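User: Can you fold this complex?
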Amino acid sequence: GDSVTQMEGPVTLSEEAFLTINCTYTATGYPSLFWYVQYPGEGLQLLLKATKADDKGSNKGFEATYRKETTSFHLEKGSVQVSDSAVYFCALSDVGGFKTIFGAGTRLFVKA
Amino acid sequence: NAGVTQTPKFQVLKTGQSMTLQCAQDMNHEYMSWYRQDPGMGLRLIHYSVGAGITDQGEVPNGYNVSRSTTEDFPLRLLSAAPSQTSVYFCASSYNGGETQYFGPGTRLLVL
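Assistant: Here's the predicted assembly.
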């Protein structure tokens, strides 16, 4: 079945460091891909998404590119801030559009 | 718009008790779902609904019941609570299962 694998955390960075969180997926067909963010004590919220191969999603300085050849959707940010500390989830929607499948989540800590 | 609301925020149950977690959305979304979040396991789909009167099982449905009598509401029932059901429960809605999910703030459940 469809699945999402993302790098284990926690990831600890200093402010202004470069961030990469790896995400790879297994799916039949051409799923849509998402990154969600969860701040402490809150529900998940959409960070960015891409719906087809080579699309780049971007929001709040974060970017991810849908790479079909490597089945990847890595999250990047050039300069992280303390306020970026959160848990990040990679997800895909199945081709039928009935389900969204989430990765295990990666916790990010950013130190001042 | 209130978005997706969940009640209660926190609940303690004894083994064998039953309860209903409430979820409501005011965005006229057809698709609603329930997830549980456990450390290191990401979000796992419990049940979902593609419209009023239609529900289906997700990845971990055992011990839970759902119904969807209106577009707005999607309650989750625990029939006989067990310590293994200690978790954080999130309700989500979207136009369809493959689109952006909008999450509620979550219900933290402790079963003793």
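The mean pLDDT of chain B is 94. The CA atoms of residues 81 and 106 of chain B lie 18 Å apart.
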